[in-house]
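Help! Submission page says 'invalid entity' but I think these are all valid:
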Amino acid sequence: MTKVIYPGQTIGIIGGGQLGRMMALAAKESGFKIAVLEPTMDSPCGQVADIRIVANYDDESALEELAEVSDVITFEFENIDYEGLKRLGQIANVPQGAELVRITQDRIIEKASLVEAGVEVSPYVVAQTYEELVERVATIGYPCVVKTARGGYDGKGQQTLYNEKDLIKAKPLFDHAACVAEAFVSFTKEISVIVQRSSNGDTYCQPIGENIHVNHILHETIVPARIEETTAQKAEQAAIQIANALQLVGTLAVEMFVLKDGGILINELAPRPHNSGHYSIEACNVSQFHQHIRAVCGWPLRKPELWAPSIMVNVLGQHVMPLTNAIAKYPHWSIHFYGKKEAKENRKMGHVTIMTENIDATLEEINASSIWSE
Ligand code: AMP
């Protein structure tokens, strides 16, 4: 059973990025205090936290300090030190545990866990070395996507191979880690299901988002996803099946491919609130961040309901100026900035959520704004 945490008590967050910030803002609405562990001084989460511990995520004494000041500890990203998180669980209240972090840090372990949970993934092979890839790739054939087992994100650490001649392009990926190679999926859509579960087994999915990527980075999420009802049911069932199999406490984002026949394949997992769930701040009765806080604080979960169809658009560094100049033109847009100082190209600086009764007209409005044309 997760210990119940009450307003006035302190939630510790490992990681000071925008996900931590939005968790903190949700928690503060209920009167919790926030402590954050983050190596940079002026982080998105640090700006809204009560206590800032400025140190590396694997710094033992900093983790001990976080344990001392926090009544419960959560995290906003999965690339934290697994052993450190496990040790933290012995001296502090970490209801999510460390197991999901171990699994999702490594695509090889993640894929095996998904198969064990009984859900479908694209056919794949594991290759510890480039030579193993050359040997094994025939099992899945071309085209295929080679991904480093550890440390890749937003399309980094990935290479699509169209034929044998391309094989050599995957060689550098093995400099860092083992890889998985998976059959290329000619999906019709990408969707994500954010499933949230409490320690007593209450489980709810946020409305399903349809994700559109540009240059491997999430660009837009359209909610509800424009998919058949039967596909939506399969997607939710799969997410719940994974959540139960992995004994989830907190939040798990499940990214999926939708196939032509309406079937689904699971692509990957993230054990935290997800970029594709940001729309829920305005568009749901309980946002992914509120629900996450409820789950880790031992509060009962609420059944998410969508107030209105919505589109979330990410604001990257190159979109900051055009958006800022257009604020006056779009009073119905909910504009979020994460407080990052430097608007570097492709850096996630904020997002916009637009609730709408007409998705097509709003997509057109987003296009016509020219903010995202670069
Ligand atoms: P990932 O880092 O695994 O989420 O992959 C990033 C993006 O690459 C996905 O959102 C897809 O657009 C694309 N992708 C990844 N794996 C495959 C695949 N097996 N087949 C087709 N596209 C893929």
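Support: the input was valid. A stray whitespace character was the problem, and the output above is from the cleaned input. The chain has eleven helices and 17 strands.
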